[in-house]
Amino acid sequence: MTTHLQKPGHLETPGDLEETGRPDETGRVTLADVAEAAGVSEITVSRVVRGLANVSPATVFKVEEAIARTGYLRNRLAGAMAGAVSNQIAVILPSLSNSVFADVLNGLEVRLQSAGFHSVLGISNYDSDRETKLIESLLGWRPAGLVIAPTELSQRALQLLRRVRVPTVEVMDIDRDPLDMVVGISHRQAGKALAYYLIGRGYRSFGYVGHDIESDHRAAIRRDGFRAALCENGLDFETEATAAAVSSVPLGRELTAGLLGQGAPRLLYFSNDDMAMGGLFEAMARGLQVPRDLAIAGFNGLQIGQSAPVALTTVESHRALIGQRAADQLLARFAGQAVDRRIDVGFTLLPGASA
Amino acid sequence: MTTHLQKPGHLETPGDLEETGRPDETGRVTLADVAEAAGVSEITVSRVVRGLANVSPATVFKVEEAIARTGYLRNRLAGAMAGAVSNQIAVILPSLSNSVFADVLNGLEVRLQSAGFHSVLGISNYDSDRETKLIESLLGWRPAGLVIAPTELSQRALQLLRRVRVPTVEVMDIDRDPLDMVVGISHRQAGKALAYYLIGRGYRSFGYVGHDIESDHRAAIRRDGFRAALCENGLDFETEATAAAVSSVPLGRELTAGLLGQGAPRLLYFSNDDMAMGGLFEAMARGLQVPRDLAIAGFNGLQIGQSAPVALTTVESHRALIGQRAADQLLARFAGQAVDRRIDVGFTLLPGASA
DNA sequence: TTGAAAGCGGTACCAT
DNA sequence: ATGGTACCGCTTTCAA
Q1: CA of A333 vs C1' of C3, distance in Å?
Q2: Which pairing describes strands B342-344 and A88-93: parallel, antiparallel, or unpaired?
Q3: Average of pLDDT values for A320-327?
Q4: Which of B80, B107, B191, B295 has its CA 20 to 30 A from that of A322?
C-alpha cells in the first residue's frame, strides 16, 4: 500500500490498543486488511459484509471476528462506485417549516429506514430554479430513487430526470400526469368535496383566507376546486383575504381580524389548517361563538385542529401515508415488481365542529 | 471502454437526438467523453466542473459547451472516492413527528444548502440501538460531517465516532460534555428559569404533566431543573400526570382532563408546548379562565402557542437557530477555522398570558 | 464455496 | 494553464 494524504476531516484512527489488528500506515482499514486478518480473500469479506448467502458459516465467523478486531467500517462510496445499488433516496420538498412536509418525510423515513435506505434531502423553497439545481446535485450521487413534491419542474429538470432514468415518485398532488409514478390526492377534488359538504350543511355565504398561492400551487388548486363547487351552485367567494407570505397561524389570525372588521361572510375557507387555527383563535379571542357567529373550515386535518375546543372542520390529507406509499412504490420497483403509475391515497372529510 | 451491465434503475439514456454528442455504447457520459468532445484532458474538464480558478476562460467555454452537448452529469460518488470531500452531512434525529426536530432540520438545511451541502437523514426514534446502526450506516458514506441529537450514545457508537474522526456536532442539549462540538441550550437551566419566574409571579402550587420521559431525556432534565428550583423554595410538584407515549396535543388534553377531575394544582407545568396546548384547550373547553382558574406553562415557544387566544407562557428554545449554528460550526471547521467546542444559543422566557 | 482480475469515474500529485 | 499517472476501495464477471 502506498502512502497518500488523509482526507480533511476523515482521519480514521488505528483504533485503540487492543483492537488494532492491522494498524496500517494511513489508519484506514479496508477490505484487504480484513481479508488478510481473516486469512481469506477480499471478495469473501465483501460477501460477508453484504450478508450474501454463499459463504460457509465457519468463514463468516472468521471474517466477523476479523472485522471486529480491525474495526473495519464499510465504505459505501466504493461499493456504489463498483456497481452496487446505492441505499440513498433523494428527497426534494418545497419546505420544512410547514409540518405537512415534515409529515410526508416522516412517513417516507418509516418505510425507507426499515428497508435500509436513507433520505438525502433537498429543500426547494417553492423555487423552480433551486429545485432544478437540487435535482442535478442530488442525482450526482446516483441515488437509488427520487421522491419529489414538485414545485414546477423546469425543462432542464425534466431533461435530467428523463436522462438518468432513476425511479421517481412525485408526491402530494395527482392532478397532473406523472413522469414516472405519483402518490397523493387530488387537491381539486378535496376542495370540491369540502364545498359540497358545507353547502349541504346549509352555508351560502363564503369567504377565502389564504397564504401565498403563487408558490403553493396545491393550495391554489384546492381553492379552484372549492370555488368550482360554489359556482355549480350559483355561489362564489364574497371576499378573499390573501397575503404573499408563507402560511402560519399568526397570518391566519391577522387576515381574519382584517375581515371581521368589515362584516365577514358566514363561513371562512382557509388555505390550510395553520391558517384556519389562526382564524379560530381570532374568533375565540373576540368572544365569537364558532360556528354560530363564524364558521371555519381548513385543510390537512392537523392533529392540533382536532384537539381544539371547537374541533376544526377540515379535510384529512393523509400526509404520512403519502410518504409511506411513495416509499413502498420505490421499494416495489427495486424488487422488480410492476407498480401502478398513480396512487390516490384519498382524503377524509373531518366534520369537526367549526362549521 | 469495455461493456458492462447497467445498474438497476440507473440507465442513463443517450439523450434525445440533438444533444447526443457522444452517444456511447452504455449510454453513460463520463468525464472522458466530455474531454474528447471538448478536445481537452479529463482533468481540465474536472477543474471546470468543480469551478476551480486555474482554467482559461476560452477553455471553460469549450468545456461547458461540450458538457451541455453531451449531457454530462457529474458523478460525486467517483469524486468522493478519489479523495474529494463529500458534500453530504449525516443528520441523526430522534423523531420527525415532533415539530421541534423538523425546526432544527430546517435551520440546518438553510445553512447547509446555501453552502452546497446535503443532509442524509436518520431517525433514531429515541432508540439507542437504532441510533448506533444509523451512525454506522451513515458513516459508511463518508460524510463531511455529522449532526446528531443524541439519544444515548452506545459504547459502539462512541467507538465509531472516535475512530472515524468526522467533525461532529451534538445538538439540543449542552448539559453533557461533547465528543467534539455541541450546540444547544441547557435544558436544566431552562427548567429552572421558568420555575423561578413562576415563583416570582406568586405561584406556589404546581403540578407536572408529561409524556414519555424515559426516552426523551431532555424533557426529563427540564423537569429536574424545574423541580430543583421548586425545592430551593421548599416546594415540589403536588401531582404528576405522565404517560408512556410520545408528546401530543391530545395527550396533553387527556392528562389534564384527568387532573382537573381531582382538584388540580394552581399551575400545571407541561413537558412541552404540544402538551401545554392540550392543557389549554381542555381548560377552554371546560369554560375555565386561564390563568385565573388554571395557569399553564410549557416549553419550546411554538408559534401556535403564541397565537392562541391566551398566549402560552413558555420558554423559546430557538430550535432553528440551533440547526443554523450547528451548520455554521461544521462549515467553519471545514474552512479550517478554530471553533468553540460548546455553543449555548440560550433560551428566551416568553411571559405569555397563561400564567 | 472461494478467488483472480478488471474496472467503476473521478481527483491528487507532480510535471510541463 | 494544462496534462500524465496512479490510485480511491469495492463489486462484478468468470473460473476453479
Answers
A1: 33
A2: unpaired
A3: 98
A4: B107
